Structures are given as C-alpha cells and as structure tokens.
Amino acid sequence: MGREYRLDELAEASGVRARTLRFYRERGLLQAPRREGRIAWYNDDHLARVRTVAALVERGHTLGGIAELIAAFESGRDVRGAAELLGLPGALAKPWSEETPVRLTPEELATRFGGGTEEVSAENLADALDIGYVAVEGEEFVHVSQRLLDVSGELVKKGVPLAVVLAAGREVRTHADALAELFTGIVRKHLLADVLDSPADLTPEQVARITDTIERLRPMAKQVLEAEVTMAMDRRVQAELEEWQREAEEG
Fold it and tell me: Locate the HTH merR-type domain: which residues (predicted)?
C-alpha cells in the first residue's frame, strides 16, 4: 500500500487545499479513502490521482470532463475513447501545426502567382493537390498554409517557375516526414516506451503523462529543426560562395 496520509497530509503532499480535496471526493474525482473508525486514510494512489486532476485542471479541462474520463477508465471503456475525453488527440495534433488555411477563388489564386494562367496550369494544380498544399471546396480553393502560400507566390514573382517550387516542396515534405519520424521515434523509445508498449493498460495518470510529455517537447522539436536548417543554410551558402570565388579566380 505504501505510505498513507490523513487529509491534511495529502493536501500538503499534493499542494492542493484540503477543502478542494473534499470537493474532488464529492464530485467522484477522488477515490473513497480507507476508513479506520472516524479517520480517513489516503494512499499514494490518491496522491497520484490528485496530481493528475490538478494538472488537467491547469491545462483547462473541466471537472465534468475529468470526471467522465475517470468514469470511463473505471467502467472499462476502451482507452481510445477515454483518451478522446481527455483531449489527447487534440494535444497530439493541434499545437504542432500553427498554420492558417487560406480560402481563394480561382482568380485570387492566379493573382497570387503573378496574375497569369501559365503558372496556375492544370499540371501545377494537380501537383499542388497531390502534395496536399491545396484542396477544393465548392468553387473555391483552400491552401493549407498562409506562410507557404506567401513564400511560393514570392518565389514565382521573382522568377522561379511554380513547377520548380512545387517539386522543391515535395522534396522538402519527404525530408520533413523523415525528421518527424526520427524525433517521435526517439520520444517513444526513450521517454514513453513503458506507457505506449501496453496501451490496453493505460491509466488516467499515464494518459495525462503522454499529453504532458508531448506538450513539453513540442517547442524543443521546433528549436532543433530551426537551428539545424539555419546552420545548414549557412554551410551551403558558404560553400557556394567559395565555389564561385574559386571559379572566378580560375577564370
């Protein structure tokens, strides 16, 4: 059973006021304590539950949603359904992508690439659809990213053919997917292996741990990728300059 706590001791260990703990217990968020006469005894399982509830509250989950999640686990509902109650799928996907989709008419799309029809051709549109940059909704196009749209349009206006921009985008996507696979593999193997290797036995605390780990690592992944790309550009530009200078001297 490990250590046992009176209510005030549980409050001190968890950092949650005793009054709040009573409220959690009344709402079914905290398991019933072991009774010994008039004394209520709580253990480390109660402490873990309190910390989980407090963490979920801090991240914006309602007490009703947390109670439903706990009830799902205790009633044997499947882990996927319980994870959805917690908001785990959203935590995995939403914050990674900060892109703003853009809705465009065919005329507006053509204008983004210099106003001509030679760039917004059937072939280029098919490529953009295949890569996933553009989708069709009714009579409009939806570009997946304002930033990618702006950069693509600027490159075309400066003289880079749209077909070349799309081909480069496809190649970048391949490398980005590989980097994402590498990073998530490291996280899974070294930080979450004990949890993810047995998903059927996930507890609310473990689901919260998965969410919390990913939220903490998200900005780190962005920093690593940005640093590596900028340093790679420095190396590539320096190599190009040295090659240009060498050719100039030889010529």
Answer: 4-72
Q: With respect to residue 160, please indicate whether it lies within any of the assigned structural domains.
A: yes
Averaged pLDDT score across all residues of the chain: 78
| Position 18 in a domain | no
Of 86, 31, 73, the C-alpha closest to 215 is 86
Question: 0.85 cut: is pTM over it?
Answer: no
The reply to whether 196 falls in a domain is: no
DSSP the chain: ---EE-HHHHHHHHT--HHHHHHHHHTTSSPPPEEETTEEEEEHHHHHHHHHHHHHHHTT--HHHHHHHHHHHHTT--HHHHHHHHTHHHHHHGGG-----EEE-HHHHHHHTTS-TTTS-HHHHHHHHHHTSEEEETTEEEES-HHHHHHHHHHHHTT--HHHHHHHHHHHHHHHHHHHHHHHHHHHHHTSHHHHT-GGG--HHHHHHHHHHHHHHHHHHHHHHHHHHHHHHHHHHHHHHHHHHHHHHH-
Cα separation, 138 vs 211, in Å, equals 36
Tell me, yes or no, whether 166 lies in a domain: yes
Give the number of domains in the chain. Answer: 1
pLDDT tens digit sequence for 92-143: 444 456 678 888 887 787 777 765 556 666 677 777 877 878 877 766 788 8
